[in-house]
Amino acid sequence: MSRELTYEELASLMKSCTGITMDPQRLRDDPQAPLADIGLDSLGLLAIVSELEKRHGVQIDSGPEACKTPGDFVAAVNESLTVGA
Amino acid sequence: MNIPAAERRTVITGLGIIAPNGMGTDAFWKATREGVSVLDRITREGCDGYPLRVAGEVRAFDPGVMVEERFLVQTDRFSHFAMAAADLALQNAQLRTEEMPAHRVGVVTAAGSGGGEFGQRELQRLWGKGPSYVGPYQSIAWFYAASTGQISIRGGFKGPCGVVASDEAGGLDAFAHAARSIRNGADAVVVGATEAPLAPYSMVCQLGYPELSRSEDPERAYLPFTAEACGFVPAEGGAMLVVEEEAAARARGAPVRAVVLGHGATFTRSSRWDRSREGLARAIGAALERSGCAPNEIDVVFADALGTVEADRAEALALADVLGPRAARVPVTAPKAGFGRAYGGAAALDVAAAVLALEHGTVPPTPRVTDVCHDLDLVTCRPRGVELRTALVLSRGLMGSNAALVLRRPEGEI
User: Fold this and answer.
1) What Pfam families does the record tag this protein with (chain B) (predicted)?
2) With helix as H, strand as E and coil as C, how does B363-385 read?
């Protein structure tokens, strides 16, 4: 099973951690759309990172919570998740 | 508009009410006018088994209907009430904030305890599962300032924002703070207080208050100004209002509901209700002076009505100290006897009730109270129709804050 974060999983985490409903296709279509535009701030990203850390049993210290777009966030998370995979 | 600060008067243009006896102005006023009591045994989850049995719950409130999910996830119930009440107030005022400069709209709330329910859940995760299970929103949701911040973010209001943490009386002090913002240049301020003290941790915190009613009988639990007074019954909910600079409100054709005339506040000390007499009297005196209002101009008093014999006596004597012989003749009421005391939210609800009383020329009764044992003309049993121009709203906090607010019907509408 791939350890990489997908837009589907991100959309699902956005919903469960921050209450924001988002179509994964929209994230995929426009990965550089600012997260601030949908109301997702660094606290929300921190909640998602914390959940991912528990799921994968690893520390994600590549700073994804500071990312401004879904594309950057997914890339930063995957940078940590794929280390040593 | 370049009106000198001293002439920038604050008027109330919208009411947003989330009360145990009704949500929205119409439902609240109907129940309040008729003196309906909704005090009942506490039914909220996890709240049984404590020596606090009776409260005023807002059972009709469905947060998911009134507030977007992303704001619900991040916030406690007290902020859910605040956001919903702010929406109701803005609708009621017909204020199109999206057409106003964002920096001219502010927010002020008062809070007595913050988000206890949210905080309890996160602390249970901390000690039950570990630090990594505490969500990041714990950093903001429990906090006294949460409602002001979330209303500001949600509405895009970038004007002067503030939070008053001064006990129950903060619900009145918030209006003074908002009036100051108006004088200093804001066009509109969303102001008020809501509380959510009916959750296990929050309830345990209240058990230490000797003034808390431990009665199990909803009909006898909160009988202020009577010889059977056995303390106050807590409640959840509160009110948010819209206040505006008078000229700006009139220019947009807004319904001017009442003028915020003057406020006074003092601080005495906790659990010394005999001393609250002087503190409350001085607060009333200051509010009248700032209002340019003589004691005999007060047409109705919305009492603090703490509900212990000692505290009620102090309030009656404070009124006598300032109003003189008028104190025994002016109609006094405590609608909260019918739905409980929502801490800071109680004072905001009294402001809303006072606005509605002035509009309708009706003093709502003090539910369930019949035999008054103080020298006051307490309105009981049924509403009293009377010409009303000026209302005095009082509030005291358990920790020693005392406040008074004077409201008046707008000119030309008497």
Assistant:
1) ketoacyl-synt, Ketoacyl-synt_C
2) ECCECCCCCCCCCCEECECCCEE
Does B343 lie in the same domain as B284?
A: yes
Measured in angstroms, the CA of B119 and the nearest CA of chain A are apart by 16
Q: Do B283 and B235 share a domain, yes or no? A: no
Residue B256 within a domain: no
The pair of three-digit structure tokens given for residue B104, joined into one six-digit string: 């001219």
pLDDT in tens, B228-280: 999 999 999 999 999 999 999 999 999 999 999 999 999 998 888 998 999 99
Domain that holds residue B402: 262-407
Alpha carbon distance B337, B339 (integer Å): 6
Count CB atoms within 10 A of the CB of residue B139. 12
Same domain, B320 and B384: yes
> Do residues B194 and B275 touch, judged by C-beta distance below 8 A?
no
Query: Chain A contact for B68, CB < 8 A?
Result: yes
Tell me what pLDDT residue B191 has.
98
User: How far does the CA of residue B293 sit from the closest CA of chain A (Å)?
Assistant: 48
Inform me whether the C-beta atom of residue B69 falls under 8 Å from chain A C-beta atoms.
Answer: yes
Q: Does A53 touch chain B (CB under 8 A)?
A: yes
Mean pLDDT of B348-366: 98
Q: Could you tell me if B269 and B244 lie in one domain?
A: no
Domain assignment present for residue B365? The answer is: yes
Q: Could you say which of B70, B132, B137 has the minimum Cβ distance to residue A53? A: B132
Number of domains in chain B: 2
From the CA of B70, how many Å to the nearest CA of chain A? Answer: 4
| Full set of structural domains in chain A with CATH | 7-81 (1.10.1200)
Query: Are A18 and B73 an interchain contact pair (Cβ–Cβ within 8 Å)?
Result: yes
**Pick from A56-65, B146-155, B355-364: least confident:** A56-65
- Asked if A19 and B68 come within 8 Å (Cβ–Cβ), the reply is yes
Q: How confident is the model at residue A84 (pLDDT cuts 50, 70, 90)?
A: low
Name, in order, each residue with C-beta under 8 angstroms of B156's C-beta and a sequence gap of 6 or more. Answer: B97, B98, B102
Query: What does the pLDDT read at residue B414?
Result: 42
pLDDT digits (tens, 9 = 90+) for B270-326: 888 998 999 999 999 999 999 999 999 999 999 999 999 999 999 999 999 999 999
Q: Is B69 in contact with A47 (Cβ distance < 8 A)? A: no
Tokens of B384: 């009293």
Q: What are phi and psi of B204, to 5 degrees?
A: -60, -40
Give the CATH number of the domain where residue B163 resides: 3.40.47.10
Chain A: give the shortest CA distance to residue B154, in Å. Answer: 10
Residue B210 lies in a domain: yes
Q: Is B126 on the interface with A (CB under 8 A)?
A: no
A35 at interface of B, judged by CB pairs closer than 8 A: no
